[in-house]
Target: tRNA wybutosine-synthesizing protein 3 homolog
Amino acid sequence: MADFDKQKEKSLSQADLSKKGSIDEHILELVQYINGLDNYFTTSSCSGRICVFSEDSEHKKKSGKWLFISHDKIELQSLLLSLDVSEGNAVFKFEPFVLHVQCKTIEDAQSLLRNALESGYKNSGIVVGKKSRFILAVRSTQSMEVPIIHRGKLLVSNEYIKYLVEIANDKMDENLTKIKRFFNNLKTLRETVKRSCHKGRKKPDSPTTQEKSEPQSIHLGTRELDHMEQDNDIEDCLADFYEHHIS
Model:
């Protein structure tokens, strides 16, 4: 348990090493919320993206480059302009929201997995790494990948690319809706668990509970998040809550 706390502190104090260098705007609040919980912290994330990725003629992805990328819905013309600089092979992609969360215990991972599955992320799962590291991967089935350029030559018409853009934009709308559902379900679950745990500990003649401490601050890379101190045993109630309240 102490190792988890050290890993979390180290992870949240480090700079964001991704190419973008920051958390995507659509999931910033969600990531901050999860990192504010005692038994979880995020290790990587993407809110979802529409992109064109160029590979060399031997399909070596590591030597390829992004010709176009957006974390929102896109316009056809901006995409077409990006294709003018294409070399080699290229694919048009939609990649949905993905989130990796390190969890303190297997029970914590199972609880968050249940929330992900109930929110529509059917490809989610738990990976048990070295030294009992429990990583939850939140994934969906919305991916799309279509080859559109081969050896510098466009394989499809602009009309077909317009069709791909329409499909990708629809997928992006659905993707953002599912993110909100996942976040809302997570907040609702935790509030319900808090009330359930507090009710179970309450005694008729017990003195009035002292007010919570002032908000603390934790670092998220170069960002700082104020949050109310969480009860240390809330996560411990999650598994029991699911067993007795969720069919």
Residues 105 and 134 are 7 Å apart (CA to CA).
